[in-house]
Amino acid sequence: MSTSTLVQSERNNLADLMLSAGPDSSTLCSEWTVRDLAAHLVIREGRPDAAVGIVVAPLAKWTSKVQAKEAERPFEDVVAQFRQGPPRWSPFAIPAVDAAANIVEFVVHAEDVRRAQHNWLPRPTDAELNEVLWTRLAKMSRMLLHKLPMGITVQRTDIDAASAAIKTGSPVLLLSGAPLELTMLLYGRSVVEVNIEGDESTVVAFRAAKLGI
Asked: Start-end ranges of CATH 3.30.1050 in the chain?
């Protein structure tokens, strides 16, 4: 499957999950409901003036205002707009940008919806997606883990003997899990199946750290 096909598949999967859960259901994204998440996804791709506040703290209030206004629209319309994809003029409309920026984004947010629901079921294993997530762990770590003092090595458990040092430092923690679970952990989600090995004080410090963007 090409990366363009994969990202469209993940877009549809996330849209389906949001519709299935309903607008007022919780997510793993702090206080956001599914309605809030859908609004976030639409302004991220279609409102660059507001999307910048996602990563630039001084502009966060403007982003929240625009997102709240978007969330007032009919929920099904917002999800349909997200499923349709970004406007033609958006950088996300470039296939290479779409694949680079959105595959992990959509996978994580899909799990934000899935794992916040009562009696949620794990996503079926997807070997191709796991390969993509695994190859991106090191790149993501530069942004997600740069404030941590310890070193981080990740080991995948879906196949044998695959590990990678994704951050230098001392002492070193070993994080073991499937690539999807490791990705969710690095993005600051706590509902994950990852084994963390290292000395006790370092494990405690890692668990207390604020991960993610």
From this structure: 127-208
Extract the tokens encoding 116: 């916040």
Distance CA 55, CA 38 (A): 18
179, 163 in Cβ contact below 8 A?
Answer: no
Q: If residue 197 lies in a helix (H) or strand (E), which one and from where to where?
A: strand 195-197
Please give the model's pTM, rounded to 2 decimal places.
Answer: 0.91
Partners of residue 175 on adjacent β-strands: 154, 196
CA distance 63 to 53: 5
Buried b (16+ CB within 10 A) or exposed e, 80-116: ebbbebbeeebebeeeeebbebbbbbbbbbbbbbbbb
Q: What is the DSSP string of 151-190?
A: EEEEEESSSSSEEEEEE--SSEEEEEE-HHHHHHHHTT-S
**CATH code of domain 127-208:** 3.30.1050
3-state helix, strand, coil in the chain (%, to 5): 55, 10, 30
Tens digit of pLDDT for each residue in 5-14?
899 999 999 9
Distances (CA, A) of 64 to 53, 60, 75, 80, 164: 8, 6, 17, 21, 37
